[in-house]
Amino acid sequence: MAIKSDLHLHSNFSGDSDTPMEEMVQKAISLGLTHICFTEHYDPDYLYTEEEPGKYEINTDSYLYDLLKCKAKYQDQIKVLFGIELGLQPQIKRELAIYNRSHDFDFVIGSTHICNRKDPYYPSFFEGRSEDEAHQEYFEAVLESVKKLPYFDVYGHLDYVVRYGPTKNDKYTYQKHADVFDKILTSLLEQEKGIELNTAGFRYGLNQPNPCIDIIKRYKELGGEIITIGSDAHEPAHVGDCFDKAADILTECGFKYYTIFEGRSPEFVRI
Ligand SMILES: [Zn+2]
Ligand SMILES: [Zn+2]
Hints:
This protein is an alpha/beta fold.
């Protein structure tokens, strides 16, 4: 594999994974990866169901404790980095700001999982309007988060919403939402923040990563250089998933480097 760093991994410290951290590390070593970053979910004020209250809260101290053990145990084989995937929502700005300052993360992904107090994961998000309108609402929420909640290094799976609509990405194009995408990308560039190429899109049958290739191309055209690669694996089988495709896409979009982070600083690695 041309790409040897997976910067978006979950373990059982995330509410939607049952995998012990060590199993993810061992899988990454077996694939020949040199760097991995756990980016467990921290999504305060998520729309919790009665069955699963607090599902995306995290005990960050015990997460760090286990991570440091894994990091030391496997230090001769792989570098294990300490990250978080922050669920961005404007009403929790203060909470996110405090949390971001309270921990020495290597890397922070900012993601929109909840959009205007609705969850795009469920069909109701798309009901009573066109799929394009639902997508547009999500992208405008992303723009608001990019501008108001600068507590992250890269924006995660920028067009995540297209995974869940009735026709997924069959009719979705960059051009339909070019205005809002350009505002998002320009604002990220002004703040020296990046995007990630999230390969889970392939697992959702999009035949594209998230975001789609045209957004990645546009980011590069506008001068973007900071792009991390993440599988968003929640189990060992998905670690490093589709990284060969990711390398081809980066090259096609004009990138010569991908990015890794340590201590919140980007480093550029030749593809
Ligand atoms: Zn996510
Ligand atoms: Zn994730």
